[in-house]
Amino acid sequence: SSHFGSSISSDVRSLVGLMVPSIELPSPTMVPGRASVSADAFGRRLLPRDDVAMQLGGLHEMPSQQPSSLPRAVRNIWRECLSRTWGPGALNSTAARLYMILGVLWFLPLVAAFVTLQRLRKPGQPLLVVSAWASFAAVGAVVFLLLGPWSLLVWCKLRDWGHLWRRNDNLAVAFIYIVACAAAATSLAARNSSASLIMVLGTSLAGVVILVTAGLAALEVFILFLTAVCARPIRRVRSPLASWGTILSMVGLSLVISFKGPNVQRVELHVQGLTASADGYTICQLSDLHAGPLAGASELKRIASLTISLECSAIILNGDIAEGTVEQRQNIMAEFKSLATAATDGAYYVPGNHEYYNFAAVGGAVAAAREWTRWWESCGFKSLNNSHVQLPRSRQTKWFTLAGIDDVLGTPNLAAALANRTVAGLPTVLMAHRPAPSLQAARREGVAVQISGHTHGGQLWPIQLPTWHSNEGFLSGLYELQGGPLLYVSDGTIGTYFTHLRLFSQSEVTVAVLRSRPAATVAGWRSARLGLYLCYALVGFCFLVPVSWLIRCLWPNFPAQAFGHHR
Length: 567
Hints:
alpha/beta; six-stranded mixed β-sheet; about 45% helix
């Protein structure tokens, strides 16, 4: 320990002296009576990472020394860190060569697997949607190789840094890796599997992997920010207890949210031009069930019963209803046949992107999507695939036009969907699975309201940020767009087949209440938007960390001088 404290401090001073010669570095304080243990200004024992952080954080308190060469300083710091983690054997040149060889043996197969995966992908096929054993093997190789260093980093955050690496640490890393690989394999194979307890457990563990990664990364960014601002390590935040607390709180909250079933989300939508006699007309939307891998016949039956009990005037299945082909899923989807006659104005079907993901189907993905349309029509549902109806059916006087549009993987054509309307001039309510692609056409055609799904509200934090970005800024809830239409985006009825877990989103059965005047109430608080704001905060901390370090280099006594006091 004393060797580490003396040698690494000189190397840190040399390294920073080369980069910023005018900055002075501190020497470590020693605890009285315990000369071998580094301590901070209050005499508290510091772990190795804190020792390095304190020296880097207090650059202004120590006289500078003659720097050595930059490569040697970096190499010595790295060797000392290896020594403190894995013991003196890590300094051996043979061990160093072994680490380098292992790194190369890890990186080359990763690149080869990724290149193979890119070549096997078909046009429009997402990275993690596998259609054949070859692509499954390629995706699995990429994921399994990435989970190796991931498992090591996770355990390094969770273990006690006060002792050297031991055999139990190896066992812990191996256990984390095996569990993570099993979870990843279950999620990758889920799309063509049937709902079972093993599928639910395996895919839930895959969600836990995402939450652990996000939680520990966010905690580390927060620690770096505090260290940069406060100029000394925050030991309580840096401790393994903080890492365990972050993980357990996120996973626990996710489990509470994810398995309680969908909420009934009522949203009032002002439809400009709607006659007063149509005020209060209700449309029930189900979207993003992804039935089959995680949602079986029993869960679909419960959702059908809930939907029927809402007594809506029309029922819409708005895309991503089932995973797989008609042949695979028609038995469980038969639970929804009762919806065809449950509403006074009938039930309707609009395809989503996952209906076009059956790349291994006979005839191709497009043929498999068309087969789903025919199957729903045989069950009594009317297809709104680039077509429309004028409602209510039971009245001679029509109130509005209900239209639907195909997914972008098919042949979307809103002009064709609205062509040949029997009664002209009626307001249009458009059902489109994805919120963004059809908005320009909807504005051009004078659509009053668009109801969509697809985003799942990001489903699992911090996926809200890439979901928001990939959908052109539409994530969840109500959006009043200049020039129209009024857009509502559902969080989905169940969620993705990769995992059942949710965090900062809520599954829902949407009841859209059409209003002829501005709605008295609007869609309430959306947890998905809170998750998006937290993503913004995390990105902000990532930006502030280097800015804070730069400020401390240029202004050594910050923040004491900034606020008019001295520490």
